[in-house]
Design goal:
single chain; 4-stranded mixed beta sheet; 4 strands; 44% helix
Length: 103
């Protein structure tokens, strides 16, 4: 058992990330996705290690950065629920809108 689940759109986020990176380098795409999954596995063991971002959402979500990607997740859900995996350099307004759409 993995201990985590993806919001359907969060899984699509991962596919988009892989596709974007793979267009230039397949091995790099695999490495980045692997690092994201490794981070998620660590979050399963210690779900409250991420940080709050009240500027992005009023929901009790936490955030964890892997390379340039922000993982938004619900730390109190069982299994741990990944809400979004978003490039961290996107506008906070865009990130907040994505999170709101995934309520």
């Amino acid at each position: 058992m993995s201990g985590f689940a993806f919001h359907p759109d969060a899984y699509a986020d991962l596919e988009s990330i892989w596709d974007y990176i793979a267009a230039e380098n397949l091995d790099a795409a695999d490495r980045v996705i692997g690092e994201i999954f490794d981070a998620i596995q660590a979050l399963v063991r210690f779900p409250h290690q991420g940080h709050h971002r009240p500027d992005l959402t009023g929901r009790p979500l936490r955030f964890h950065l892997v390379r340039d990607f922000l993982i938004a997740y619900a730390p109190d859900e069982k299994p741990l629920l990944m809400i979004a995996v978003i490039h961290g350099r996107r506008s906070p307004r865009v990130i907040a809108a994505v999170l709101q759409a995934r309520e």
